[in-house]
Amino acid sequence: PPIYIITPTYARPNQKVDLTTRLSHALQLARGIHWIVVEDSDHKTTLVANLLSRTSLPYTHLHIPTPDHMKRQPHEEFGAKPRGVLQRNEGLRWLREELLSRNNRDGFLYFADDDNGYDLELFDEIRTIKNAGVWPVAFAGGVMVEKPLLKNGKVVGWDVAFEPKREFAVDMAGFAVSVKLLMDRPEARFDFDQPPGHQETYFLKSLGLKKRNMEPKAKNCTQVLVWHTKTKEPILILEKILNQIGKQTDKGMEV
Ligand code: UGA
Ligand code: MN
Q1: Residue 254 within a domain
Q2: Would residue 250 count as lying in a domain?
Q3: Does residue 76 form part of some domain?
Q4: Which CATH number goes with the domain that contains 95?
Q5: Domain coverage including residue 48
Q6: Residue with the nearest Cα to atom 14 of ligand 1?
Q7: What is the DSSP string of the chain?
Q8: Ligand 1 test: best mutation among 41, 113, 146, 191, most atoms within 8 Å of CB?
Q9: Which of 41, 42, 203, 249 is the most buried (most CB within 10 A)?
Q10: Could you read off the pLDDT of 15-50 as tens digits, one per residue?
Q11: Catalytic annotation on 200?
Q12: ipTM over 0.85
């Protein structure tokens, strides 16, 4: 059964290298993936269309723009506005429609942001999920590893520094669910009014889950298979100066 992977993405200098060499290459090696890429844009860009057409993956290319008033501005604090919300919901809309039309409920759903690092073994773990799985995420929440706290094989809490009392103190990269569960709960989605760090709880609760329902993966949550990374923004000071005098080093090139 396929793993449907929803990836929100937006234009920036690092977009192509992140999506191509980090994410698409990992997903192609993982096999059995259907990649749903949702651009935060008012149109589908040729940059993303081109990199998708170069993969061997079955994929779906979607777009939906985040309105300006819903975007975090440079002066706004880190926790001000969640990112990728409309894009993940658009991916969910497409997936439900597709599965309904095919009368199919096989497979798994995972949200893979376009900047993280994914071990191939993560996808093998996802394929063992019955309803919903959970595992550690490195570098999330301001610590080396955020992980579920287990007791007798059940999730009873969270070994995290940021708001451990949340029902699901887990990053977007730290869980996956069965497609059947997604179809049983047609209302389940993300909500822009939930601050960053609460999107995961909102979504998993809307699937009718409690933390004790989560199946611990990655050797009882002792293994790190995903890293919450961010590629350093390239320094383009001189490019900006060149642009002011009418020069552009990437003119006619896709970077
Ligand atoms: C953390 C979490 O890991 C994310 O799952 C969560 O969405 C995010 O916080 C949040 O603030 O809501 P972080 O690395 O800070 O992640 O956020 P990004 O990786 O920059 O953004 C998350 C996803 O949304 C990425 O796939 C990114 O490409 C996408 N995004 C970001 C957009 O689609 N539009 C934007 O304007 C910004
Ligand atoms: Mn990220």
Answers
A1: no
A2: no
A3: yes
A4: 3.90.550.10
A5: 3-244
A6: 230
A7: -PEEEEEEE--STTHHHIIIIIIIHHHHHH-SEEEEEEESSSS--HHHHHHHHTSSS-EEEEE-PPPGGGSPPTTS-TTSS-SSHHHHHHHHHHHHHHHHHHT---SEEEE--TTSEE-HHHHHHHTT-SSEEE--EET-TTSSEEEEEEETTEEEEEE-SS-TTSTT---GGGEEEEHHHHHH-TT----TTSPTTSHHHHHHHHTT--GGGPEE-HHHHTS--EE---PPPPP-HHHHHHHHTT--TTTT---
A8: 113
A9: 203
A10: 999 999 999 999 999 999 999 999 999 999 999 999
A11: yes
A12: yes
